[in-house]
Amino acid sequence: MDRDAAVQLLDRLHAAQNEFYSGGGDSGLRKLLTPDIAWTVPGRNRIAGQYHGLDDVLAYFARRRDLAARTFQMHRADVLAGDGDRIAALTDGTAILGGAARTWSTVGLYAIRGEQIAACWLLPLDPAAFDEAWSR
User: Can you give the pTM of this predicted structure?
Assistant: First the structure.
C-alpha cells in the first residue's frame, strides 16, 4: 500500500474512532474493520488484551471510551508504508483518565485487507506510562 493510501485509510479510521470515543455511533468503524479483525494491546492495565472479531473489538473500543469518559482522542503523527499489506502509524493519544489529563504515544502496526483493517498490534513507546494511564 502506498503512503498516500495508507494515510487516507488511517485518517478515516482515526476519524471514526474519535467520533465513537466522543459518543457517536460505530457505523464508520464497521465499514473500516474486517469481520474477523484481531486487535492486540500489550501491558498490565484495564485495556490490555487480545480481541478477536468485530463485536469483541468494538466492545474494547467502548471500554476505552467509557474509561476515558468520552475524552479519548487519537492524533496521527506519521505513517510508514511499503509494498506489502502492512502499515505502521505513530499516533498520540490524549484523555482524561482518573481525573488527570494523560498523553501517550504508540505505534500501531496494521494488517490491511482490501480497504479495511484486518489486524492491529499496539506498541506503546513508553509501556510503563501507558500502563499507568490506563490503570487508573
Answer: 0.94
Nine-digit cell at 97?
483518565
**DSSP secondary structure code for residue 50 in this structure:** E
Of the candidates 109, 56, 63, 116, the one whose C-alpha atom is nearest the C-alpha of residue 86 is 109
**How far from the centroid of its chain's Cα atoms is residue 106's Cα?**
9
pLDDT of residue 136: 74
Residues in contact with 102: Cβ distance below 8 Å, sequence separation at least 6, in sequence order: 93, 94, 95, 96, 133
Residues 6+ apart with CB under 8 A from 52: 36, 37, 38
| CA–CA dist 121, 124 (Å, integer) | 10
**pLDDT single digits (tens) 37-62:** 999 999 999 999 999 999 999 999 99
